[in-house]
Amino acid sequence: MNILITGGAGFIGSHISERLIKIGHNIICIDNFNDFYDPKIKEDNLANIINNKRFKLFPIDILDKKKINKIFLENNIDLVIHLAARAGVRPSIANAELYEIVNVQGTINLLEECKRNNVNKFIFASSSSVYGGNKKTPFSENDQVDKPVSPYAMTKKSGELICYTYHYLYNIQVFAFRFFTVYGPRQRPEMAIHKFVREMMDGRDINIYGNGKSSRDYTYIDDIIDGITNSLDIISGYEIFNLGNSKPINIIELIKIIEDQTGLNANIVYAEKQPGDVFCTYSDISKAKRMINYNPEVSIEVGIKRFIEWYKSKNYKEINNDC
User: Fold this and answer.
1) CA distance readout (Å), 131 to 127, 156, 173
2) CATH among 3.40.50.300, 2.50.20.10, 3.40.309.10, 3.40.50.720 for 2-180+220-244+279-297
3) What Cα–Cα distance (Å) separates residue 322 from each residue in 91, 92, 134?
4) Which of 63, 71, 107, 136 is most buried, taking the most CB atoms under 10 A from its CB?
5) What is the predicted pLDDT for the residue at 187?
6) Low-confidence stretches of the chain (pLDDT beneath 70)
7) Domain boundaries, the chain
């Protein structure tokens, strides 16, 4: 298959590109290499595949309709995996308009090209953030998600709705995956695990917002990639799936695991809870297990160990992007 991956130089995008090339697919990668974090990190993400004959890279923006149209016209695309987005809850509060333009209009641009070019399979990267302050756990795809608590969450919910509209009107088959706190090698530098490891190794304080009891359903990158890959040949209708680990842990427990794996002690500084943060994420993955044979296998202990090994191998320096 010829598979277009937006955001293909990012954390998840580079991993799924590698996997799909390995199993014989051709990848058309779109990424605008913006300055949300150092673009050199994305360049490094692609080091293993940049010269592969099955890989094409187009450093463009999904808001550039003319260039997007040209890519669709010239590459005989069979499937779109749409990962590109402005990410992060806190920065979305500071710049809601940018998030709306990129995440909503960008998704419409891609679906419009699918309509024009008869591309009828589309994977949309949604987020556990759509559940907002949901008190019922674990979170089910059937839960009401009409009360997002950040602009980022709003744009992801909007993206799901837009995908359904294009499915209904133009028969585009859509799987929307709600990712739950994905981590692992190449994780974005402002994300908690990457940030905590970096700060501990640099001997700096770790800021925790709130009392440290908030929890996240941390999901290792390989498990996420398995879920996406398992779905490629069965995309049909319009379906939403949770892709998580279904084993949430709180921040204090997470830091203890990092301490155990690094042999370092964290110096924790508590700060006020931030706007848009939620207390818990916890995925019900029964639907994904049943329909796409999704079965996360990597424990948080093993995943943290793999991340730290990768971090040490890259010898990353401090990146001033602590969003």
Assistant:
1) 8, 10, 23
2) 3.40.50.720
3) 10, 14, 27
4) 107
5) 96
6) 315-323
7) 2-180+220-244+279-297
